[in-house]
Amino acid sequence: MPTLTEKKRPTSRSAGRPAPELIFGDLWEFDPAPETADPKLKPRYDLFIGGKFVAPVSGKYFDSINPANETKLAEIAQANAADVDAAYQAAKKAYDTVWGKMPGRERAKYIFRIARLLQDRAREFAVAETMDGGKAIKESRDFDVPMAAAHFFYHAGWADKLDYVAPGRRVAPLGVVGQVIPWNFPLLMLAWKLAPALAMGNTIVIKPAETTSITALKLAEIFQDAGLPAGVVNIVTGFGDTGAAVMDHPIAAKVAFTGSTEVGKIIMRSLAGTDKKMTMELGGKAANIVFDDAPIDQAVEGIVNGIFFNQGHVCCAGSRLLVQETVAAEVLAKLKNRVKVLRIGDPLDKNTDIGAINSKEQLGTIERLVATGVKEGATMFQPACKLPSKGYYFRPTIFSGVSMSHRIAREEIFGPVLSVLTFRTVDEAVEKANNTAYGLSAGVWTDKGSRILKMSTELKAGVVWANTYNKFDPASPFGGYKESGFGREGGRQGLLDYCKLV
Amino acid sequence: MSRLPITKTPKVYVGGAFIRSESARTFPLKDAAGNFFANIPQCTRKDLRNAVEAAAKAGPGWAKRTAYNRGQIIYRLGEMLEARKADLADALSVGGALRPDGKRGIAREIEATIDRLIYYAGWADKYEQVLGNVNPVASPHFNFTVTEPMGIVGLLAPEEAPLLALVSLIAPAITSGNTVVALASTTQPYPAIVLGEMLATSDLPGGVVNLLTGYRKELVPTFATHTHLRAIAGVANADERKALKLGAAESVKRVKLHKTEEPVNWFSDQAQSLYDVRDTLEFKTTWHPIGA
Predict the structure, then answer these.
(1) Structure pTM?
(2) Which residue in B139, B141, B242 is closest to A273 by CB distance?
(3) Is position A35 annotated as part of the catalytic site?
């Protein structure tokens, strides 16, 4: 009796005829599948200072817009220097009287509670995050919110184990820390910043980005529910001037900033005359390197995830694809086919792959840089997909024939735009990958283990993804080399940036 | 008639060679009795740039040495100092007028310097085991964090403890594979000149440690703005700290400075630490899927 293994495959296939390709494109219409959970938004959000929601001194509010349809979601308080000062006074009081003195095991319990309460309301937060920032619901639901909760849960457990953070030395909290975060992962960045600082015993004044303040203020509701002592976390909302006031305040023992390299440098200059500690998580222009022995289909998925995840609003996005010349044509063809079937549109739709660009301003930046790419002679590919008539959307874009001198290969675009370059040898790949002022992350696709370790050693980047891309974890330190910043977030290494050695 | 001794022309150790400043400028140094001793090279920003170039050339090779090998070479440097304690004592007594603790203090400084080298020699193949780790991520990935040297580190030595402080700054940086460009004490530069001779006879490759003598005012601005220096460490006053941090912002340079106004006790065990090694390290995290 013939066994399964003896069975012959159909001769036409074994003769090398490729399997027929399924191209979906516009042939298949998807019914709308909107996520319907109630985001429980308030019409107006005040500042969160000293454990209470308080109106801004100026009485001014600004509108938070849903980038998917340009409708107003809520009004957000605009904090000025007086509000920021009040937040710092509250944080200092909380540090001096409660949080700084509390045993680690008790601090831990508050942080665990925050993680649990966020998990309880995960879907509500995911919908709010998607409406506020434009990211696809499947990402906010499956990545942003659960990962934010995981950050609190992971760091909570450190609070009473700080003797293990710096072997041979004892550690102590810094006091009050000031933090400014960007709009690409509003809740997750908040968790990245708050969780280690709280575990270490610091109190906080934090400013979310002006386009994405809502989930931060919803998290403040959780702080209240968790019974977090007043003033331990203070949230001030507003624009760049509010952020500058947070960074420059004399009470801040340390400032932590995530955002563009340009603004990071401004902050470094403004703090040059002070003793404030700093961590900077800045921009990137990561190389995603595909060797000819890589599993091409998996690599294509990784390339797509690397650049189109979160509309490309990712500091570690794999925005420069370096592909070995011998497989460049194959990779590019498969990549284009894959991009043709990405679904772009309503971020709240559970089928959507690419949601809305975060703001009109950012859409303009992307459009300008893409126009530069065309002008400088690179070949542009965009799939012929329908875009919603209202809202800020941009087609996934692939530039081929890009050289290292092109602006689209050097500047961070922070959008769904991939530049494809080629290389011949391992050395050339390393040279091209490192030929940038940035050094946040890199990707390597190859079947060869020794090559992965060689590349990982040679690449000047803080995170290297081998045969995967855009993976994150609270236990895994994240942060850059060179002009991508300094300091780490996550893991044991991240905690050390929120303490002093005594 | 007594024999007239041959005096040594002080030269700084840069790129494995002994050089005078490209500017041909010098400044006079007096001995403890206040008599002329020698002319010390007054290095310029051009000399600093050349030193950075030498450090850049030496960097990849030094970083690729095995940790065991780096440890042995730093230990060998300790051997060179131990063998030439008398030379060092002479060098330190040139600035004797500045030393209230006299001969005993000089002997103490030399011994502490040698012990400091031995301390860091031992760390070379261990710090990674303490600072790096495998991370238990919640996905099927093998995830590990290792350290890497930052690259070229600029060091500003304080005026006091001209041998011990200089070596206390150099040793933790080179232990992990960085290369350094160090500015020696301006008032007591001679120990750095003699240290250069010992660096040259240890097995340390040329360009790993580059020593400059000269005036801080002339050199600090270039330390601040040179984009190939990835980190600045050492001791600086308030104005220098501000200038260095302003310059650092232009290329997001790492700055770890002690304050001149809060003197470090370089003799204490607090002045040597695993965390001084950490100050000039980057952390790199690698993810790899676990599967067939």
Answers:
(1) 0.94
(2) B242
(3) no
